[in-house]
Amino acid sequence: DITNCQQLQAIQNDTDGAYTLAQDIDCAGTNQWNSNGDGGFEGFEPISNFSGTLDGNNYTISGLYINRPGSCGQGIFDTLQSGSVIQDLAINNLSLTASCDSAPLAAFADGGSTITNVSTSGSVAVSYGAGGIIGIAESEDEGDITVSDSASNVTFAASNEDNQQTVGGIVGYVNSYRSTVSLLNNQVTMNVSNSSANAYRIGGMTGGADLYDDGHLVIDGSEVDGAITAHSTLAGLVGEVDSSWSTMDDRPSLTITNSQVVMNMLGKGAVGGLVSYIEASGLDVRIENSSYLGYS
Fold first, then answer.
1. Contact predicate 117/109, CB 8 Å
2. What are the tens digits of pLDDT across the range 142-183?
3. Among 57-71, 108-122, 149-163, 173-187, the least confident range
């Protein structure tokens, strides 16, 4: 059982084990961990290549601090590998600063990973590939990825001047090849305010999705509120979708069902209530029982 932040960090010593939180964990002291050599601290060190299980047991990790503005791959985990399961966990009042591909729970989720009933809050300053729960969900014929019954209320900001690209309330960026990424019954409060020309591809569920050869993105039962101000390709659910396929049997798809967006969005180009921009070759798109309310 995990009862403190030091034990959480020690998961790195056995990354295919089964872990359970035994109580709420205060990680505020991580703001004094790992000197950066310049009078500051880098904080918690991401746990590499986790393939085990972490059951939060409905407890909370609070005050976690990660400050590596020149690095990518930051979060509690750098990679959730195939077979990993994270469930029933709250991550509150997190402070995360990184260059790219980072999020509170994990920077990367590989095919075959499952996240259920995880909530996050705090601040995420990342210039590319920032997610409210997962930075990059990527499966290349490795198995499906599911994030379900989860929630984020994160304030997003840029870490490199005004660059802020590919930001998603649940997943920053989806890359699916011969697999399915499912975002099911999730709730997001979006907080993005960056009107520079370098702020684009931002969505309430995911900032962008690349779907190739039997790759699929499914969004069902999701709710988004809050506000987004950016330059272009911003939307309530999916910022931008790109796709391609080799044969008719390999056509990718985007499915959005039973989802609602109530959010204010301001942008100069390609602003969509549910999806902003689709650059698709042979993409099957199905949108049912879903709506947007707000102004753009």
1. no
2. 899 999 999 999 999 988 777 888 999 999 999 999 999 999
3. 149-163
